[in-house]
Amino acid sequence: FGSEHHVPILVYPNPLNPERYVVLNSSFTFREFAYLNNARQVAKLPDWAVIDVRTPANSLWPGKVVAADFFDERWQLKPFRAAKP
Question: 63, 52 in Cβ contact below 8 A?
Answer without folding.
Answer: yes
